[in-house]
Amino acid sequence: MLGNNTYSQRLSGVLNAAMDAPIVKAETTSSHDDAEDVLRLAATMAVLSIIDSREDTSRVGRNSGSSWSMDHRRVKMGKSDLMTARSRRAIWR
Fold first, then answer.
1. Which of 14-23, 47-56, 78-87 has the highest mean pLDDT?
2. Most exposed: 19, 23, 50, 85, by fewest CB within 10 Å?
């Protein structure tokens, strides 16, 4: 992964950096036009969104799951159900 930043935060950083960058007119000798640039940018954004949307398989076992599964595990271990546990006051209050 590319760090702890979310996709939108990285995209925002790229756009902010692009707004602050000086505009330099460069003469191009290649034959590509603006449509190719747009397609290249779209492909780059698609790759970034695919990379960001992948689930990190190393953390799957640490996810607690749905409320139903958490409640089910608590009751099976002899603890109070999840609704009761959530409605109690915290110890530090």
1. 78-87
2. 23
Q: How far apart are CA 6 and CA 8, in angstroms?
A: 5
Question: Whole-angstrom Cα distance, residue 63 to residue 69?
Answer: 11
Phi-psi region of 28 (alpha: psi -120 to 50; beta: other; left: phi over 0): beta
Closest CA to 2 of 38, 69, 61, 50: 50
**Could you give the 3-state DSSP secondary structure of residue 68?**
helix
Q: Which of 63, 62, 80 is nearest to 71 (CA)?
A: 80
64 Cβ contact partners less than 8 Å away, ≥ 6 residues apart: 70
